[in-house]
Amino acid sequence: MKLKKIGFALMSLVLILTMIPAMTSAASKLSIVVEVNGELILFPDAKPFMDKSNRVQVPVRFVSEALGAEVGWNSKSKQVTVQLGEDTTVLTMGKKAYTVNGQTKQMDTVAQQKQNRTFVPLRFVSEALGAKVIWHKDLYSVEILTGLAAVQKDKEKESESNSVKDSLKGSSTSRSIEGETEKKVTEGFSYYQSYKSGLFVNSEYEEYKKEYGKQAIVIQPYISFSREGVNYTQQVKDLEELLSQKIDAKTVQAIMKYVKEKTKRDDVLESKEFSDGKYRIEVASPFWDDVYVAVWYK
């Protein structure tokens, strides 16, 4: 009987291992969808792909045909020049440095050649031309807005930002705001719900501990990237000060080291758990989202 169990386990392992390449292959063939001002762009041969830096690369021909720019190629210097109106962008194959109207900037990826085609990082080129780029992770698609569509998007964002500000002002009587009200205290953690830096701290522990006990979240601070006017550096300092009140220094140091890996809204922090003798702390940040920190009792 024991030999049969071992044999069954080995067979299961073999089946799992043989399925992994097929699953990986299927995932790698998932097509990236690109829309410009609501119009679906077709790529009959050279397809967009996600590079090692998690950036969408598109064939340079797309830039000229879909965005209306003029594209030039210098085979000696291996440089691509993209010009639209008065804006000129120059990228060099394999180099992170590029120029926009003569000003040198840095990417976190590079333009590259693949299957005898030249590919450029979509976001950096599009934004250099004044377009808005929105990545929809769940749909595996890119939305590009140009001209009036981009202006309208900016107006929508401004309206949304003002709505958030008005909402915060309206709830000032019940919300603890740095510089305006006293701090709140939850299980020994002293904090403001809204910091000047943009850090926000949520806690409904008193309400939920009756039902969930120690499974209820004690505090849940998050570093905001989604609102204008926030101070990332100060948010990090405020978060560290808050966690240091009750969590041991070594654990806080490890948490903050991981938190600091995200400096831009499109960086991703996979869910990661930390713990000391009393608390367990989870840190996560999806693509194009805030950094969320949750503190529980162990």
UniProtKB/TrEMBL annotation:
Residues in Copper amine oxidase-like N-terminal domain copies: 36-144
Region (Disordered): 155-179
Source organism, top-level taxon: Bacteria
Signal peptide: 1-26
Biased composition (Polar residues): 161-176
This protein's UniProt keywords: Signal
InterPro entries referenced in this protein's UniProt entry, alphabetically: Cu_amine_oxidase-like_N (IPR012854), Mao_N_sf (IPR036582)
Identification of the protein by name: Copper amine oxidase-like N-terminal domain-containing protein
